[in-house]
Amino acid sequence: MKVTVKVPATSANLGPGFDCLGLALPIYNTLTIEETVLPGTGVEINLMSEGDNIDEMIFDNVPKDENSIVYKAVEMLYNSIGQEPSELRINIQSQIPITRGLGSSASVVVGGLIAANKLLGSPADTTALLSIATEVEGHPDNVAPAILGGFVMSSREDDGSIITEKLNWPEEWDITVCIPDFELSTNIARSVLPESVPLQDAVFNAKHLAMLIQAINTKDVKLMKNALHDRLHQPYREKLIPGMKEIMEAFIHEDNVIGTVLSGAGPSILVISHKYDLDKIKSTVRSIWESLSIKSDIRTLKIENNGAEIIEG
Ligand code: HSE
Predict the structure, then answer these.
(1) How far is ligand 1, taken at its centre, from the CA of residue 12, in Å?
(2) Do 156 and 280 belong to one domain?
């Protein structure tokens, strides 16, 4: 039997929503899990890029054995029902750029879990899959929109349970995804964050996250522009991302540019706008990075309201 799952890219954090907000984007990884007929063949993982993906070289460094996160996720699911994974071939067709803050690892974790669950006769429900995916990823903000689609608030509670709520992203707000041609691993981007933060910074993010939720619910551009500020992760990560400060500052005085935020742990950057010249956003960001000899891929995308789906099997 063979199961194929298509999973969207995701962008986590959205400024003040560190580790708890994320949205799905229409760039996809497609993952197939096939039961192989030969006994003793173990688990084989193949990774292929689609189109003119700039990540060919990076693919060579991605583990394709038991150290792979997709293997870990699939193994946890099998173990949860007292089985061990074996005789599986996992093929990943990748469109989502790797190590760019666009949820490529969350997408393969989610794709692997949904495909393996189907192969096993669907013993786990969405909540259980979300819980395993969060454990593998360490935080739920990418895996939740990868599974559910749309704009999602997620929290892993102290008892391990995961709470998710879908929020309505205003369709008229444009999301321009700016992807530089350098990589930044989430591990490195998290290693620069402090263990604890000043109380006023925690309060700053609480206030701005509250504003963000109200701005989304009321489609209030002005409130959203005020909300999209963060003191928990972006200031610490700025030093890892050449051009980030300049890009963040480039649109501050443009009323119709709602905000500029780091996508996940970076290095990609989202520019959120409303009725603003999208070519101007692209040329501004491109030229800032070009002045630093950084190539970029910049696309304005609609939010993907559908989460991962089984397309075969
Ligand atoms: N919330 C996570 C972070 C997303 O910012 O580190 C990266 O996977």
Answers:
(1) 6
(2) no
How much distance in Å is there from the Cα of 121 to the middle of ligand 1? 32
One domain for residues 156 and 20: yes
Q: Which domain holds residue 280?
A: 174-301
Is residue 12 within 6 Å of ligand 1 at its C-beta?
A: yes
Three-class DSSP labels, the chain: CEEEEEEEEEEECCCCCCCCEEEEEEEEEEEEEEECCCCCCCEEEEEEECCCCCCHHHHCCCCCCCCCHHHHHHHHHHHHCCCCCCCEEEEEEECCCCCCCCCHHHHHHHHHHHHHHHHCCCCCCHHHHHHHHHHHHCCCCCHHHHHHCCEEEEEECCCCCEEEEEECCCCCCEEEEEEECCCCCHHHHHHCCCCCCCHHHHHHHHHHHHHHHHHHHHCCHHHHHHHCCCCCCHHHHHHHCCCHHHHHHHCCCCCCEEEEEECCCCCCEEEEECCCCHHHHHHHHHHHHHCCCCCEEEEEECCCCCCCEEEEC
Residue whose Cα lies nearest atom 6 of ligand 1: it is: 265
Whether 110 lines ligand 1, by a CB cut-off of 6 Å, is no
Residue 201 and residue 159 share a domain:
no
pLDDT score of 56 = 52
Expressed in angstroms and rounded, the spacing between residue 83 Cα and the centre of ligand 1 is 31
160 and 288 housed in the same domain: no
Q: Whose CA is nearest to atom 3 of ligand 1?
A: 265
- Asked if 308 and 261 sit in the same domain, the reply is no
Residue 268 pLDDT: 98
* pLDDT for the residue numbered 57: 47
The answer on 292 and 149 residing in a single domain is no
* Residue ranges of the chain with per-residue pLDDT less than 70: 38-41, 50-67
Q: Give 37 Cα–ligand 1 centroid separation in angstroms.
A: 38
100 lines ligand 1 (CB under 6 A): no
How many domains does one find in the chain? 2
